[in-house]
Amino acid sequence: MSANGAVWGRVRSRLRAFPERLAVCGAEAAAYGRCVQASTAPGGRLSKDFCAREFEALRSCFAAAAKKTLEGGC
Amino acid sequence: MLRPAGLWRLCRLSWAARVPAENLGRRDVTSGVSPRGSTSPRTLNIFDRDLKRKQKNWAAQQPEPTKFDYLKEEVGSRIADRVYDIPRNFPLALDLGCGRGYIAQYLNKETIGKFFQADIAENALKNSLETEIPTVSVLADEEFLPFRENTFDLVVSSLSLHWVNDLPRALEQIHYILKPDGVFIGAMFGGDTLYELRCSLQLAETEREGGFSPHISPFTAVNDLGHLLGRAGFNTLTVDTDEIQVNYPGMFELMEDLQGMGESNCSWNRKALLHRDTMLAAAAVYREMYRNEDGSVPATYQIYYMIGWKYHESQARPAERGSATVSFGELGKINNLMPQGNKSQ
């Protein structure tokens, strides 16, 4: 960590905003979670990008929520 | 750093010869780092003890230290209950990996005469909680205890043994420093702890990155615990398990609390980076797979409590083979047998 911890502090504050942005994207998160959970059923195999579509939807919703809060405040 | 390292190795080799205390104290300078060419072939080096000390120091000097104490307070009070269950007083006791002294605050002067608090993090010892028992703070690593044989009547350890590298050796040392008829009461995290977090991270990392690396440290299984205690020389073992479930708003809050408790990962094979995408995916999976009705997510902490005694002639021993006077077949007539005072063990 640097002397005044500026970078660490900045990264941490960005991370602290994650939960509220995730709360905004509840539906997309649930869809992604269901897709991953389905792969854990007997006979399913989880491979890379198995649920890529759902994750893209979640990520774009998350980015939109981030932009909204950025424009909204701080 | 050559001279202290050489002295330290000398101290380790003459362990059996009871090296005087002032030389043993020097161990702390190089403690936490296992020598590469170690004397014992079974020495494991899973955790970076130096990093664990830094993490605990950081956790102990946070602005609100009590915010993350809830789990350790709870387990500390349950260990104090077990100490009270034993109808004895302990003139000299040791708390290994005490943190801020969560057990001492629940015990009283009559039960414990003098309490030694040992931890690897000096900030934790500096901010220790109030207790009426006279205490001595010692900066010591759980694997390299600077105490003589047959010193303590009671050794307690709450939620710190899951970070030691060589658990068999740590238990053997605890057995060594106990007096005959002394008791060791410990609590450590068990196999199912944080399984929700482990599974979520595993699934998310596999889906996002194609493979996964361990983020939760490996825990001891309950069978192994019994064997380890037996191998260390303890008698009359008792191991029982308890599950504490804590609800969090989400995965990020859980991880923040774990860091605040000083329980961040410090294994050598940890991945240095956890991608934001993976964290996001894991939080989504955690919420979907494990959430409660009210929207919170649970985290399970499985605690194993163990009690072991150091051998003394006065302790009860199993009866001799063939000395039974009553057979199990007569169990139905136990009412007739009992007034005679003729109970078989």
Describe the structure.
The complex is a heterodimer of chains A (74) and B (345). Chain A has one domain (3-72). Chain A is mostly helical and 74 residues long. Helix content of chain A is 72%, strand content 0%. The longest helix of chain A is centred in the last third of the chain and has 21 residues, at 52-72. Chain A contains four helices and no strands. Chain B is of the alpha/beta class and 345 residues long. Chain B has a domain at 49-193 and 219-247 and 301-310. Helices cover 35% and strands 19% of the residues of chain B. Chain B has helices at 2-13, 21-25, 27-30, 49-60, 70-85, 122-126, 167-177, 195-209, 222-232, 251-260, 276-290, 334-337, and strands spanning 90-96, 112-119, 135-139, 152-158, 178-189, 235-248, 297-309. In chain B, helix 7 (167-177) packs across helix 9 (222-232). Chain B is globular. The termini of chain B are far apart. Classes of the chains: A mainly alpha (74), B alpha/beta (345). Chains A and B meet through helix 2, helix 3 and helix 4 of A and helix 8, helix 10 and helix 11 of B. Chain B: Its main location: mitochondrion. Chain B: Interacts with NDUFAF8, leading to stabilize NDUFAF5. Interacts with NDUFS7. Interacts with PYURF (via TRM112 domain); the interaction is direct and stabilizes NDUFAF5 protein. Chain B: Residues 1-36 form a transit peptide. Chain B: GO terms for molecular function: monooxygenase activity; S-adenosylmethionine-dependent methyltransferase activity.
